[in-house]
Amino acid sequence: MAIDRDRLLAHDIPVVTQPFDAADLARYALSIGMGQDPMDRAMLPYATGARAMPAVACVLGHPGFWLGDPATGVDALRLVHGEQGMTIHAPIPPSGRITARTRPTGLIDKGAGRGALLYSEKEIRDAETDALLATCRITTFLRGDGGYGGASDTPKPSHTLPETAPDHVFDTPTRPEQALLYRWNGDPNPLHTDPDVAAKAGFERPILHGLCSFGCAAHALLAVLCDYDADRFGRWTRASPPMSFRGRRCAPKSGPTGRSGPARWSVTWS
Q1: Phi, psi at 61, each rounded to 5°
Q2: Active site residue 187
Q3: Which of 81, 109, 145, 192 is catalytic?
């Protein structure tokens, strides 16, 4: 059955209120591969939960797998994470309570057999002061929902990458069991844990969460461009890499620093 654009964009996603502490921050950092070198003193504050890794904003106040609700009309088995962006407006404290509101913001029909793009946004605020902490922007590729026949929003402009060679390469391994740990951040989609579900979706085995690979790349940015200082982390957007299986190596490459505008930032899985 074709999705109903107006119904999908009006889908009510409940506001999430969530307390968090060092255990939540440490679980996130460990689930994106931080802490593999217990002698790395710069990384340890994040791996132990003493400090918030900025990309934890992507999982704080997570609304759950709301696209799995049949009321959305989406073919939930065939959707994949397409792009993720975030803006950190203020440092995330080491503990506290947040509120998060997620809402669909746009839908692009790529045509029958070509899927559709769903844009959504999540705002995270301090529950006590209402201060805006972070805004997360998500593009979901609905592989089975193209050609729905309704109106289509204007696609976001694509990023034009510079043709210069990367200035930095940051190599970090993903572990075979990494998705089994990452799922406890609030994403229990069985595509990442159940071999039978992965096979039905056309994959040889469960794949790594798109947001987990985003976290791996955010770790590289934090290390290479921010010298592990979370207060220097601002805004960035990244398209998801090709489907990755757990246990591969992630080698992000960043573009020239010291200038504004798009930078070359690729992730190589091997």
Answers
A1: 65, 25
A2: yes
A3: 192
Nearest-angstrom CA–CA distance, 155 and 109: 9
Residue type, 148: Y
pLDDT per residue over 211-245, tens digit each?
Answer: 888 898 899 889 988 999 999 988 776 655 444 44
Q: Which residues contact 202 (CB under 8 A, 6 or more apart)?
A: none
Select which of 24, 109, 145, 187 is catalytic.
187
Cβ atoms 96, 47 nearer than 8 A = no
Q: What φ, ψ does residue 87 adopt, rounded to 5°? A: -125, 125
Q: Which two tokens stand for residue 193?
A: 């844990």
Q: Is 192 one of the catalytic residues?
A: yes
- Write the pLDDT tens digit of every residue in 122-156: 999 999 999 999 999 999 999 888 888 777 777 87
Whether residue 111 contacts residue 150, with contact meaning beta carbons closer than 8 Å, is answered with no
Most confident of 80-94, 128-142, 192-206: 128-142
